[in-house]
Amino acid sequence: METVNIVCFGFGQVAKNFIKKINLENLKINLTVTSREKSEKRSFDGLDYESLQFSENSFDKRLIETLKHSNHILISIAPVNGEDIVVKNFTNIFDNSRTKWITYLSATSVYGNHNGDWVNENSKTNPTSTNGINRLNVEKSWLDLAEKKNLPLQILRLSGIYSNQKNILARLKTGNAQIIDKKNQFFSRIHVEDIANVLFKSLQNFKSKEIYNVSDDKPTSSEELILYGSKLLNIEKPKVIDLSTIESEVIKNFYKDSKKVNNKKMKEFFNYKLKYPTYVEGLDHILNNNI
């Protein structure tokens, strides 16, 4: 495979795990990332890279030439004021693009509430949260741009992300987990390593203008997850709290949605077997490896 000249808009846990996976597979890579901080040279996982300043108000002009010569672009930054600042700032840069792979990381919040039923990529999108509304708007802006300029775009709708560092076990240890009493409440989740593996698979198995749900096999209630985590840590489960007593609007909005996310399209197209098919394997790995 040719050298992966990649620009990562945002360099959070998903992008970092993706780059680690590329490194692990010994592919040649030239990496540029964006950050709100000042431009500088940095190093990650033994790889030297350029971090260029980029925000809704300004950006390092070197980004223009970098984008013109990139063959892969990953967008993992959140919408700003309801829009995607990559589309806002760089639409014209894609006129004669060499890019052969653009991936926008969206979220399953675009589906909104489905009262605990299953959703797939063809299900109605009726987001209830600000995040879901903004994500769906950005998806449409990227799809419109891809159509107009014939760009190679795929969209991954990610379920709730957990990792070796950020997970229910860590929250239970610090006392930051609580059980919310709400019936028929289902959430889907995905380990960050599985996201990275799917992204890596897509480098050589890519179909433009497609959308994939990236989720594990076992949607559950947050209560079920917390009870399993408490059992692993051999601690008492947190007390149950009535949703009506919660003051946080973020948590209230989170519990408006209940759905089970179907991952069949993702697994079949990328011929991918999940490393952590359910939270059981994921949390067991974290506990057994003292992470």
Task: Sum up the structure in keywords.
291 residues, alpha/beta, Rossmann fold, eight-stranded mixed β-sheet, two-stranded parallel ribbon, 10 helices, globular
Reconstruct the topology from this structure.
Blueprint: E1 4-9, H1 13-24, E2 29-35, E3 40-44, E4 47-53, H2 62-69, E5 72-75, H3 85-90, E6 101-107, E7 118-119, H4 130-149, E8 153-158, E9 160-162, H5 168-173, E10 179-181, E11 189-191, H6 192-202, E12 210-214, H7 222-233, E13 240-242, H8 249-254, E14 260-261, H9 264-269, H10 279-288
Parallel strand pairs: 1-2, 1-5, 2-4, 5-6, 6-8, 7-14, 8-12, 9-11, 10-13
Antiparallel strand pairs: 3-4
Helix pairs in contact: 1-6, 7-10
Task: Describe what you observe in this structure.
This protein is α/β, with parallel strands linked by helices and 291 residues long. The protein has one domain (4-163, 189-219, 260-275): NAD(P)-binding Rossmann-like Domain (Rossmann fold, 3-Layer(aba) Sandwich). It is 33% helix and 22% strand. The chain has 10 helices and 14 strands. An 8-stranded mixed β-sheet has the order 3-4-2-1-5-6-8-12, with helices on both faces. A two-stranded parallel ribbon has the order 7-14. A two-stranded parallel ribbon has the order 9-11. Helix 1 (13-24) crosses helix 6 (192-202) and helix 7 runs parallel beside helix 10 (279-288). The longest helix has 20 residues, at 130-149. It starts with a strand and ends with a helix. The model has no long low-confidence stretch (mean pLDDT 94).
